[in-house]
Amino acid sequence: MKPVIVVHGGAGRIFKEREQGCRTGVVRAALQGYSVLKQGGSALDAVEEAVRSMEDDPHFNAGCGSVLNEKGEVEMDAIIMDGKNLASGAVSAVKCIANPIKLARLVMEKTKHMLLTDHGAHLFAQAMGVPETPGEKLITQRSLERWKKNLEPDSNPEEFQKQYPQTSATAVDRKPYYRCRAKRRNNRCFIP
User: Fold this and answer.
1) Buried b / exposed e across 16-31, counting CB within 10 Å, b at 16+?
2) Does 117 participate in catalysis according to the annotation?
3) Annotated catalytic residue: which of 24, 133, 140, 167?
4) Which portions of this protein are annotated as coiled-coil regions (predicted)?
């Protein structure tokens, strides 16, 4: 079977000045994930790499560049699923972690849990040696401006959030019927 990866960088409104950066980021994520597959890596490794690439790219609402919560902090969720055995791992309300998709995978592989949240996820990240990133390093100027706009008395944050949908990656590796998917929604990551 020929390996395949599909990467989704979001379906929200992309302003003209951001279009090229978003395209470049999606292509980069797909190529990085596909490179893993070409070298014989698993679909799980490929989707983690693709989503990690988007988490590191400020053009996307994932990791660095995420929409800020009510307090002006980056707070993220991530989930990953292994199509081979339907195992999944997730984290929610994670702060100061640049790549929550990596932490979600560790939850899947190193614990009997499916989901760790907030302080528990933070303690688990420390125990697993996942490096902390200062919260301010995950905040982009664009995210800060969006957050400030949402503080205005006549703003509609729910409507505003619709512009910043999910990012995701789905892959099939060389092994038959081995599919993996990781999906992010807003600054949260979900499997449908």
Assistant:
1) eeeeeebeebbebbbe
2) no
3) 167
4) none
